[in-house]
Write a structure and sequence with these properties.
Elements (H helix, E strand, L loop, with lengths): L1 E2 L4 E2 L6 H18 L5 H8 L4 H16 L1 H16 L3 H19 L7 H29 L3 H24 L13 H25 L24 H10 L2 H31 L6 H26 L1 H20 L8 H37 L4 H29 L11 H27 L5 H15 L1
Antiparallel strand pairs: 1-2
Length: 463
Amino acid sequence: MNSINGGVAKRSNLSLGKILAYCFPYVGMIFLMAPMTVLPGVYVKYFDIEMTTMASILLLSRVIDSVTDPLIGYFSDRYFSRTGTRKPFLLLGGVLFILGAYFLYLPAKEISVFYIVFWMAIFYVGWTLVEVPHLAWGGELAFDSEEKTKIFSFRTASAYIGQILFYTIPLLPFFTTTEMTPEVLEWSALIMCVVLFPMIILCIKKVPDGRLLVDSVAPTNDQKISSGMTIFNFVRNSVVKNKPLVLFVCAYFFIALGMGLWFGLIFIYVDSYLLLGEEFSRMFLVAFVVGVFVTPFWYWMSGCIGKIKTWCLAAIILIFACIYTGFLKPGDTTALELVIAKTLNTVGSVSLLIMSASILSDICDYSSWRFGSVKTATFFALKAFLYKMVVALGTALGLAVAGWYGFDPASSIHTNDGIFGLTLAISWMPAFSISIAIIFILFTPLNSRRNKIIRRRLDRSNG
């Protein structure tokens, strides 16, 4: 039980059952988020939305959404500091997320740009209301760096279970094709819109609130953060002066950009270029099954070589996946080669999800000790903001580059220029971007030993 006013945080027994209950709603969240990978391609193919228009819609919806990320992080931290819980944010976010998913995945036959932008904004605001407090909550449930990695490993496995469930839908026997169609999105939304909210309620009832490391670590005068701090002062004191956070942001930016380029075009690449749309669901499904089973490996690897080197290894695998994708050609590519490409991407992505969350949680501890202020949800909001904005930027950039070179996903014949643009955007550009990220990853100074020292100092200050 947390003692908020007194600042005492006693160690609770975080059982496996509680960890699973904490991760349970994330299965449903990812199930409803997974279709966003193919939604641009579905809208372009089935609803006559131009590629360049879709790129603009993605950017606009994420710009609107980006305003909410720091606000949700800020208010979640303030609410947690006063009450010791983040659970109301999950309730409100769950409702908005479900509404947005319903109207995006079950659209009318005639949809406008305003319709897509509006419901994407609702969808992503709901996602952030759940995602940011839920991530911060996970870090606050843990008592050391290793336990954080364990919690976020289970959370990542839950994400891939959610994706497995989604990509199983097109393979059900009552569909006439295994391709990603509007009908698949409709059934996915109907199923999970009914199931997700009870998942959130179960999590709220079964999982204890995280412990609060109160603002009792006295910062120096130039570091002190007042309640009336301006955004400029917050950025200067808590971000610019926070070297581990700056390096993390830079690394995460370039990885997210590369991921956005690859994911934004993979459906079009497989369906319209390689003409293997019927294999799309299967390749994702197999890769995500591998993703669940590889999660313990990354947890073990981080214990052997540390989080930073593990994250770096994952980035190298992602680079190889991008390059491998670029060498796939229509007529010569087999279903197995598609599975290999997606599996490589998934193996790297699993580590990315686990290590980025665990490392950022360590950075939150460092920030609480160094600057005397709890900003857990704020920093995870920054991570969510970066991922959403930069992935959207990468997706829009990839669509735009392919479109500028003349690639038309609705055509059965493609020009050499169009093929070059598509390959450039899905292979070489993301590989280069992720390569830059490795430089920043290698300079990250925090490790398990230093985090243990910081946690002991925080515990003494709060005891």
